[in-house]
Design brief:
This protein is an alpha/beta fold and about 300 residues long. It folds into three domains: about 70 residues, Arc Repressor Mutant, subunit A; about 90 residues, D-Maltodextrin-Binding Protein, domain 2, CATH 3.40.190.10; about 100 residues, Periplasmic binding protein-like II (D-Maltodextrin-Binding Protein, domain 2, 3-Layer(aba) Sandwich). The strands form three sheets. Strands 7, 8, 9, 10, 11 and 12 form a six-stranded mixed sheet that branches. Strands 4-3-5-13-6 form a five-stranded mixed sheet. The chain has a two-stranded antiparallel ribbon with strand order 1-2. Helix 1 packs across helix 3. The termini are far apart.
Length: about 300
Amino acid sequence: MPRSLPPLNALPDFEAAARHLSFTRAAEELHVTHGAVSRQVKSLEDYLGLPLFRRLNRALRLTDEGQAYARTVRALLDSLADSTRRLRAPKDSRALTVSTTYSFTSGWLVPRLARFRALHPEIDVRLLANDQIADFARDNIDLGIRYGRGNYPGLAAERLLGDDFVPVASPALLKGRYPLRKPADLRHHVLLHEEGNEVDWRMWLAAAGLDSIDASRGPVFSHSIMAVQAAIRGEGVALGRTTLIAEELASGQLVRLFDLRLEAEMAYYIVCPPRALDQPKIRAFRDWLLSEAKTPR
């Protein structure tokens, strides 16, 4: 008996619009026009004989039927994407492609990677450093490590590491005319800033009860690696993330200042397609990551 299927071309447009609750944002994601998304959704509604969205003046809302159908369509598209990724993946079973951020790659993962190679010489790890969320199917990614709150639709997410923000500086700044012995001594030193950081100097100084220090002064860097390197060179004091500066602290390139640390709300998560852990090489890397997260450097 022939299957009764909806217009298949309309399903990605509907799913994206349902996820964003916006035809415009769905169009941006799919690289088509707003009108194209609207027409595809309308063709799907015409086929089903009922509305999937309530179109308000400045908002888009799913109907009850639309919510239920969106869950079904999303699960089907995720399953199809996962199967496609598996078929398109390189046939070399040794290769394992991991996507993560620049800072996590250099600050945490690379210094430990030799231990994984020693345990699993049969697996060749390929690291892709990118601060954008990876498209697992398109980019043939096996596993990702991301910094966020654990909400990654369509992916399995498992918390790996938390983070604290602490002031760090070159040991040279502990000496000299204005040695850094207490938080108030920061008034004599340059503050190094990372753009877009979850915790900034304003928050740390407020927590330390220091309202007389200008929290905005000092250079701003677009990436944590730049701020850390500036701190190592003695150019000022940075707010370092404990996850990413373990190497520098252990080697003595940086010293932690004071006792006050601010805990980050976000954390590092292992993310992958729901059934990816069925593959032994992916599960092996995931298990190793979790073990490393419990092991002091």
